[in-house]
Write a structure and sequence with these properties.
With 410 residues, the protein is of the alpha/beta class. The chain has two domains: 104 residues, no CATH class; 275 residues, no CATH class. 48% of the residues lie in helices and 8% in strands. The protein has 18 helices and five strands. Strands 2-3-4-1-5 form a five-stranded parallel sheet, sandwiched between helices. Helix 7 crosses helix 11. The chain is globular.
């Protein structure tokens, strides 16, 4: 960290190139999001949150390390902070999902995820002006607490204790820039802003943690296959709390498998039912491995009416956009003067640092950030007292790069 401070940084913007690890390690809730660079390449479909927030199904493709998860997390941030009646639901494939799953399996996972996200986002957005809550709102949200499972129920218990200052977490709560949001990781979510306590929130928690009615009238779609009823209940609950549409942010299809046909089989049941989801204003934002794009396109063509409902884009990087990402990281970490890696290059590096790094990265942000991190590590471990990185540091980094596992190339 001493070397980073010498070059004007107050944080390490290259600590880890993996989005989930980076956001988990961020001490400041804004740190991870400040690193985000909205990659917009002329002549290509955008993958920025503004484009993804339209009422369409979106399929976002990318190779490993291209930034699919970072894009997904920033879309979620946008939905939870720029409020327009959109409920963002995070649907992550688990470690067990390596075999084809049925639509009922998918719906069960989405119902639980929707319950968690609805409860969290209601808590984030509740204000004194929302009082009094209607009996319907409370009944529906209570039912979602049950559907959300034990982890959600335990988190709400901890949250209630914290706001009544009866918890050992109270010191961490007072110190945290996320406020009550420090509890969100317990159910697999991340804070996006500071959440404070209020009488409205205390009243809400006091009611929704009590047992409620098991059923209520719901408008079941005549076309709904068996097993969808619980999801339609989730839609009803979301509407009662002012959400006009639901975005399902699906990610992690390639977490355990890399064979294209097998990855496609994991998502094929959802794609088969996208028309039905759209009838209920449920829109999927799928972050998918590039290798399955032809298989998905072929499936969409076979489903009447679906082609006009789906938009797709591929996350691609060139040297210019990778350079902009690099500079964004330096700026977010505190440096207003570093405009290129080359300012850190010693005299014996005739080509500088940035162009050779870009060539090694082969269009991958993850590779670029990994190489920069290892280059700094190599320098600090041998000549950390010197400001400039030299040929010896570069050669040590190259040895590390040769040991990296191969990834699919563009």
């Amino acid at each position: 960290m001493r070397y980073l401070k010498r070059i004007g940084l107050n944080a390490d913007p290259f600590r880890t190139p993996v989005a989930e690890q980076e956001i988990s390690a961020s001490e400041d809730i804004s740190e991870f999001y400040n690193y985000y660079y909205p990659n917009e390449t002329p002549g290509q479909e955008s993958t920025t949150p503004n484009w993804l927030r339209t009422e369409s199904h979106h399929l976002i493709y990318g190779l490993p390390g291209a930034g699919k998860t970072t894009t997904r997390l920033n879309l979620e941030l946008d939905c939870r902070t720029v409020l327009d009646g959109t409920l963002a639901v995070t649907d992550l494939f688990g470690q067990e999902e390596t075999e084809p799953v049925t639509i009922e399996d998918h719906v069960l996972r989405i119902v639980q995820a929707a319950a968690v996200d609805l409860v969290i986002q209601v808590i984030e957005q509740v204000t004194p002006e929302d009082l009094p809550f209607s009996p319907q709102q409370l009944d529906l949200l209570r039912a979602q607490v049950r559907l959300g499972g034990v982890a959600l129920q335990r988190m709400l218990h901890n949250l209630t204790e914290a706001i009544s200052e009866q918890s050992h977490s109270i010191d961490a709560l007072h110190k945290s820039r996320a406020g009550l949001g420090i509890f969100w990781p317990r159910v697999g979510r991340y804070p996006v802003r500071y959440i404070g306590s209020s009488n409205a929130l205390k009243q809400l928690l006091a009611v929704i943690r009590k047992p409620g009615r098991a059923d209520w009238p719901i408008d079941l779609s005549p076309a709904a296959p068996p097993g969808f009823e619980a999801l339609w209940q989730s839609v009803e609950a979301a509407r009662a709390w002012g959400y006009q549409r639901i975005f399902i942010l699906l990610d992690g299809v390639d977490a355990r498998v890399r064979e294209p046909a097998q990855m496609h089989r994991l998502v094929a049941p959802l794609i088969e039912h996208l028309v039905i989801f759209q009838e209920k204003k449920i829109y999927f934002k799928m972050f998918l491995p590039l290798e399955i794009k032809p298989l998905v396109a072929e499936q969409i063509e076979r489903i009447p009416g679906l082609n006009s409902m789906v938009r797709d884009a591929t996350i691609q990087w060139n040297q210019q956009t990778l350079h902009q990402l690099l500079i964004q990281r330096f700026r977010a970490a505190g440096s207003q003067t570093i405009n290129s890696l080359d300012v850190l290059a010693g005299d014996d590096l005739e080509r500088g640092l940035e162009q050779p790094i870009m060539e090694l990265a082969q269009g991958s942000p993850r590779k670029m950030l990994t190489y920069v991190s290892q280059l700094i590590n190599a320098h600090v471990s041998h000549r950390g007292d010197q400001l400039k990185i030299d040929r010896g540091d570069w050669d040590r980094m190259k040895k590390f790069a040769r040991r990296l596992p191969a990834e699919p190339n563009q």
